[in-house]
TrEMBL record:
Entry's Gene Ontology molecular function annotations: transferase activity
Domain Aminoglycoside phosphotransferase: 39-239
Signal peptide: none
Protein name: Phosphotransferase
Organism expressing this protein natively: Niallia endozanthoxylica
Keywords, in A-Z order: Transferase
SUPFAM superfamilies named among the record's database cross-references: Protein kinase-like (PK-like)
Short name of one Pfam family: APH
Length: 329
């Protein structure tokens, strides 16, 4: 039995976990490989592999298991499966409940937003996911929280403002003023258009449509994974996040973004334009840097600085075009 060390970690913890698994599971484990916090790849002696993933509560684990099962039952097969345990058995180790997930074999080229083809394919998959998850809203409305976009972004903005004394060590005053100005403009009009924002169909939102949550298999099929942040809310919320994720790869081109067919129904509404102006990615990353006290980590600071400044002129031009398009309607 071997433990493969990745991403640092506590070797003692890994040894204890491996011992617990060998005592609890009816398998002969050959290798336990940490992937990230509370996520491991387990390889058995016969070569079979699965993913071991920890959850902070049994309820969180059971919601994930039930949701994946519901998705597949309603006709959305493009994700992993959970392996079931015998009745009344579960894995609980050092404050985490663990589920066993299907191991997916990666394709040669991981999915990313660096090509229009991938952006389009990801949008199509997200649209398919929404069509299915819309059918599940009634079953999960007492289980999942409702996502309040405006309140979330107001909180993120206020946290960024609170962090400005520290962030001023890294960013010029003019940059900070631009960011806060864009956010204030966006939030003011979003609040006016709140009724429109929440008039879009409610679906179960994925909540984290980053490129790493789209998975290209070795057979070339694209899957949607990691549903830890699911909530109920208007479908426009996921599309706004997706747009924000791909815009850097489109060099903040309004024309390119609006050319994707899946966005067309949303571009008809000013509320979509107001929301696109909000610098949610920049606020998120700077707030995280302060919260995690990693602002002395040169590598992490460099990454957030690149996000903020790398295409700043393009982003500013994008914001100005949004203001013009809203005005001329």
């Amino acid at each position: 039995m071997n433990i493969t060390a990745k991403f640092g970690g506590d070797d003692s913890f890994h040894n204890r976990l491996l011992s617990y698994l060998n005592q609890t599971l009816p398998y002969q484990i050959d290798c336990l490989t940490p992937v990230r916090r509370n996520v491991f790849i387990v390889r058995l002696n016969d070569g079979f592999q699965f993913v071991l993933k920890g959850y902070p509560s049994l309820r969180r684990l059971k919601i994930q298991e039930a949701f994946i099962q519901s998705l597949k039952k309603e006709g959305f097969p493009y994700t992993y499966s959970f392996y079931s345990f015998p009745k009344e058995q579960c894995l609980y180790f050092e404050s985490q409940y663990y589920g066993l997930l299907e191991f997916l074999h990666k394709g040669e080229k991981p999915f990313s937003y660096n090509s229009r083809k991938n952006c389009q394919e990801g949008l199509q998959l997200l649209q398919s996911f929404h069509k299915t998850s819309e059918k599940l809203v009634g079953s999960y409305k007492t289980i999942l929280p409702f996502f309040h976009l405006i309140e979330k972004w107001e909180e993120r903005y206020q946290q960024f403002k609170h962090n400005i004394p520290l962030l001023s060590l890294f960013l010029q005053k003019e940059i900070i003023n631009d960011l806060t100005s864009w956010a204030e403009w966006s939030l003011a009009y979003l609040k006016q258009e709140k009724e429109t924002l929440y008039s879009f169909p409610n679906v179960i939102l994925h909540g984290d449509v980053a490129h790493h949550n789209f998975f290209r298999t070795s057979e070339g099929e694209l899957l949607l994974i990691d549903f830890d942040l699911i909530s109920i809310g208007p479908d426009i919320t996921d599309y706004l996040q997706y747009a924000n994720r791909i815009l850097p790869f489109l060099h903040w081109s309004f024309q390119q973004l609006s050319s994707f067919e899946q966005f067309h129904p949303y571009f008809k509404h000013n509320v979509f334009l107001y929301a696109l102006a909000y610098p949610t990615d920049i606020f998120r990353e700077w707030n995280r840097l302060v919260k995690d006290h990693t602002y002395n980590d040169t590598r992490k600071v460099r990454s957030v600085m690149e996000l903020t400044l790398g295409q700043y002129d393009n982003r500013r031009a994008f914001y100005e075009e949004i203001k013009t398009r809203v005005t001329i309607r």
